[in-house]
Design a protein that fits this description.
68% helix, 117 residues, mainly alpha
Length: 117
Amino acid sequence: MPDEPRIGDADLMNITGGDRARARSLRKALQKLADDHAPDDPLREMAREVLSGRTGLRQAARIPAYAEALGDRMVQGFHEYDRLSPGERAGQAAAAQAYLAEQAAEADEERTGRKGS
C-alpha cells in the first residue's frame, strides 16, 4: 500500500463539518485500521479503500460487509463505554479534548509551514 495514492486531511473535511482537527484524527484512525488489524478484517480493507481514494467514507459505510463490521465495532465500543465509571468517562473526555487540541495544532503547523513553534 505504500506506493498507492493517499488522501489527506482536507479530503475528510466534508465528513467532519470542516473541522481540521477531527479530519486529521479521522485520517489517523483510518491509517491505524489499515495498518494494525488482521488481514481478513473488513475494517482494514475499508480503511485501505478510503485512504487510497478508491471510495469515500460515506460510500464505504453503505457497503454491507463494512457496515456490519462498523456496527459490530460500535456496539463493542458502547459496551466498553458503559462499563466505565463516571470518573473514567470524564478522564476519557478530557483526553479526547487534549488529543483534538494536539491535532488542531499539528494541522495549523502543517498548513502554515512551521513546525515546533
